[in-house]
Amino acid sequence: MANELIEVVNPATEQVIGSVKANTAAEVDTAVRAAHAAFPGWAATPLAERAAIGRRIAEGVAARRDELAELITAEMGSPISFSTRVQASLPVAVASGIVDLVDGGYDFSEEIGNSLVLREPIGVVGAITPWNYPLHQVVAKVVPALVAGCTVVLKPSEVTPLTAEAFAEIVRAAGVPEGVFHLVHGFGPTVGEAIVSHPLVDMISFTGSTAAGRRISAVGAETVKRVSLELGGKSANIILDDADLAAAAKQAIAHCFINSGQTCTARTRVLIPAQLHDEFVSLLTDVAAKYTPGDPTDPATRVGPMVTKAQQERVKSYIQQGIDEGATLAIGGADTPAETPVGYYVRPTVFANVRNDMVIAQEEIFGPVLAVLPYADEDEAVAIANDSIYGLSGSVYSADADRALAVARRMRTGQVDINGGAFNPVAPFGGYKQSGNGREMGLHGLEEFTELKAIQR
């Protein structure tokens, strides 16, 4: 049906809080053609002017931070403290980091011998973003694409379209010219497919599931367009035998349960020396007990609901599968939390004595579920960490920074934190293996939206 209504459901209350009209494939075609027509003029706009607009977008997001945080919490259930501190604040740092590069003198060109090497905007970008970070992922694609000189057609997740609508208002207020930015709504098989298959779209930047990424790669190959993918993860957290176990346990739970576990970089596998396994599980259980599911609008809440009923059921089924596989249930379980009878909640769960061949150790669950795997020695820890189709993130804890760095170097993953190293919004972000390709944020994220041209003189 043309322009069917997409209803937005608050996952904590199960009530409809808004709606948007789904676009059609024909409307996608109109948007893409308009972006294609606007591209030459936008690409020719002085870099300083494009960067100034990027700066105004960052400032616009900052000015509406609290409003955006509340909207994100209402749309997808992220606890309000996390929505304010991360969901609506990190995008400002990401956008500002891109603009700071240009203001610092980066000009998309370099001399190599007798060649002038130029980075030129790739063209029309189809940006397809997920529901778990509905503002951050949009900003991480749209702002560098615009600054690079590309035009953009954005399709946000149909689960969280209201945040994208608010962002579109900010883009318009920042002075982006007509035709340069377009927002379309809809579902993957129709609107997403129309963007990916369109011959006038030069690049797809996608964040989402690995299954969807495979489909996008296949469809994009038909027109040989660039496809940049940020996909799933099953990140390993290696605890070495000299680590501060109490501190590591606290951070292990925090990094696994971040955004209620709905984070692609969540460290959902903890690897611990076998002789320390029981002690560490006890510490983890004590910390996890403090993560009580609750109202995401309460600043004290650490774990909100899953984004949809389907996601709730998916996570619960994985928890049951872990029980059926024989892992030790240290805390949590597959039953719905008694304290939250309304809303799509699950019980934060820790499994002990997990083997790496178990489903809960191999598949991305996307909920507050932690698997603890014992290992014999450092070599086995690295082998277990790398024995995954994914390679998005990871971490190492050790009292010896050099030893931790040596282990981090051996991990086949796009990001590694040592002893809780802080997230860097201008460092390259992306994955190895089936966690995707390409990079976002900072210089590498900006250059992702460019083509290289060598002019010999």
TrEMBL record:
<keyword id="KW-0560">Oxidoreductase</keyword>
<feature type="active site">
    <location>
        <position position="230"/>
    </location>
</feature>
<protein>
    <recommendedName>
        <fullName>aldehyde dehydrogenase (NAD(+))</fullName>
        <ecNumber>1.2.1.3</ecNumber>
    </recommendedName>
</protein>
<dbReference type="GO" id="GO:0004029">
    <property type="term" value="F:aldehyde dehydrogenase (NAD+) activity"/>
</dbReference>
<dbReference type="InterPro" id="IPR015590">
    <property type="entry name" value="Aldehyde_DH_dom"/>
</dbReference>
<feature type="domain" description="Aldehyde dehydrogenase">
    <location>
        <begin position="4"/>
        <end position="455"/>
    </location>
</feature>
<dbReference type="InterPro" id="IPR016163">
    <property type="entry name" value="Ald_DH_C"/>
</dbReference>
<dbReference type="InterPro" id="IPR016162">
    <property type="entry name" value="Ald_DH_N"/>
</dbReference>
<dbReference type="Pfam" id="PF00171">
    <property type="entry name" value="Aldedh"/>
</dbReference>
<comment type="similarity">
    <text>Belongs to the aldehyde dehydrogenase family.</text>
</comment>
<dbReference type="InterPro" id="IPR029510">
    <property type="entry name" value="Ald_DH_CS_GLU"/>
</dbReference>
<dbReference type="InterPro" id="IPR016161">
    <property type="entry name" value="Ald_DH/histidinol_DH"/>
</dbReference>
<dbReference type="InterPro" id="IPR016160">
    <property type="entry name" value="Ald_DH_CS_CYS"/>
</dbReference>
